[in-house]
Amino acid sequence: MRQKMRQKYSFATTLVFLCACLASQGAIAQAPEAWPTKPITMVVPFPPGGVADTVGRPVAEALSRSLGQPVIVENKAGAGGGIGMAAVARAKPDGYTILMALSSISIIPEADKVVGREQSFQLNQLKPIARFTADPTVLVVRADSPWKDYKSFVAAMRANPGKYNFGSSGNYGTMHVPMEMLKSSEKFYMVHIPYTGAGPAIVGLLGGQVDAIATGPSSIVQQIKAGKVRALAHWGDGRLASMPEVPSFKEMGVKVEFSQWAGLFVPSATPDYITNKLREAAKQAANDERVRTVINGAGSPIQYMDAPEFKAYWDKESTQMGEVVRKIGKVE
User: What is the pLDDT of residue 270?
Assistant: First the structure.
């Protein structure tokens, strides 16, 4: 009798175990189709008002429509974008934490080495999904400044080393590096005032706390149109559609170029079935008429790259930016 009971108990236990295994396998098999099943957080590593935020918010709305779940923008500013980027690099690779980064992502790891601090993240901790925009930074001064063109600006900088200052989104960020490149090339000196993002730096310019900034067209074009600031030159190749009257440094014989792009990233261990869904949703976002209207209206036309092309572009740029940062050297 006891033997039969033991056999019956053993059979029941085995049956429960097998059912659990089958259920688990079924859940695993269904998981790729189920994602996403809850809201997604898009980390923008700068305060509101900058390029990453200007691009990130309409893209987040479009991703929400494609993926069927809310994509919530979280501004996590600090350290030139490094705090937010590091948070995503260390996040669980489940697709529920994504990053809208600027080209400073290529700079920060090398800057950490140059400064001698612990690296906040490594480039191989992040995987590119798509690039949305890529614009040269623009040199901007207040409309009431005495400099009507770049020639008068650079003459004043050379004649008064250290008298004037410029604002940026933080040390080694996308507003800082192009100005350091220009200072080095043109042999002048300005004091650097780092802020926590492009938005605060623009406020600093408008309020008279800084004399100049270098920023992306999308974050400043409305202030230019309103007559509050004046663009003197830009770091691109050829004229910009949003401000065709502004010359490039290249056409003036100044050998500096710098592009401020915005792209989507995830932690590098994120499974392919998730990244593939994100790639498709990103492609739809780049072609979404509402997204294009908002971003084009901000002076930053869509320049979309899918993951493979973006990865090759990013690898090349990271190498170049590493060289630039080492040339700039340690900045306190």
Answer: 98
Q: What's the start-to-end Cα distance of the chain, in Å?
A: 83
Which two tokens mark 240? 């910009």
Q: Please, are residues 247 and 230 in contact by the beta-carbon 8 Å criterion? A: no
- Give the dihedral of Cα atoms 156, 159, 165, 167; nearest 10 deg: 50
This prediction has a pTM of 0.78
Lowest mean pLDDT among 16-25, 71-80, 272-281, 285-294: 16-25
User: Please, which residues have CB within 8 angstroms of residue 83's CB and are 6 or more apart in sequence?
Assistant: 45, 76, 77, 120
Q: Which of 141, 261, 156 is nearest to 213 (CA)?
A: 141
Host H or E run for residue 19: helix 2-34
For strands 259-267 and 97-102, give the pairing. Answer: antiparallel
Going by pLDDT thresholds of 50, 70 and 90, the confidence category of residue 217 is confident
How would residue 33 be classed by pLDDT, with cut points 50, 70 and 90? low
Tokens coding 274: 């998730």
The verdict on whether omega for the bond into residue 200 sits within 30 degrees of 0, i.e. cis, is no
Pairing of the two strands 165-168 and 191-194:
parallel
DSSP conformation class of 247: P
Give the whole-angstrom CA distance, residue 259 versus residue 100. 16
Q: Please give the Cα distance from 44 to 239 (Å, whole number).
A: 29
Instruction: Provide the edge-to-edge strand list for the sheet that holds 191-194.
Output: 191-194, 165-168, 212-215, 138-142, 229-234
Distance CA 125, CA 88 (A): 9
